[in-house]
Amino acid sequence: MDFVKVKAHIGTARRKAEVTVTIPTRPVRPSRLTPMLRRMMDAAVDAASDGVAVTCSKGCGDCCSQMVPLRRMEARRLAAMVERMEEPRRTEILGRFAAARERLAAAAMLDAVERPREQGDLDWEEFALRYFHLGIPCPFLEDGSCSIYAERPLVCREFLVTSDPKHCRRPEDKLVDIVPVPSVGGAVRVIEREAQPEEDPWVLLVHALAWVAARPEESAGPVDAREFLRQVMEKLR
Predict the structure, then answer these.
(1) Would you give the DSSP letter of residue 4?
(2) DSSP type of residue 14
(3) Which among 10, 24, 53, 236 counts the fewest CB atoms within 10 Å?
(4) Does the pTM of the predicted model rise above 0.85?
(5) pLDDT-above-90 percentage for the chain
């Protein structure tokens, strides 16, 4: 497959960064474009956080017990990554995913996670707080740090805190200050919803493996990478 390099400008009104992404010249499944989106998100974060005192640090993993909504393409990429893991790590990670789902089932919250599109007027902000206080760690959290940092989701990349880290333990107090960053993941969510409104709007990270297992074939057809990039940039404006 042939590839081409394309430049884009992304960031905030205060500062924008030029980012070069490598994209395929032929149509591909959306999940193949995840690396492009990550590179764009990282560039946006670098631009937005320049000169800002970010208080996030290695070992500070409170945010890793929050709900982590993935784009559908990300869920497939993550599931493929776990599938490629060598033993015994793969079995260990699968066990953590299973344990998270068991905790949600015990709290009568699994149905909402499995079928978010069918939840009607469910208060998702309140649901997210309930989820956080269950204390379910991300399956990839180890020693307070992300063990798949290079592969972490878009929403994790855009979450940068400038307030005292202690406030991250009680998000309901609304004392957490975050760096305003253009949300590439948010743009993709709109694109996915417009293309396939009948699909789930997001896939919770701890449900990603089960979600992909139930849908082994990617329902979204091949897309033109350059056009997809154009749509992302349009949604970010």
Answers:
(1) E
(2) S
(3) 53
(4) yes
(5) 89
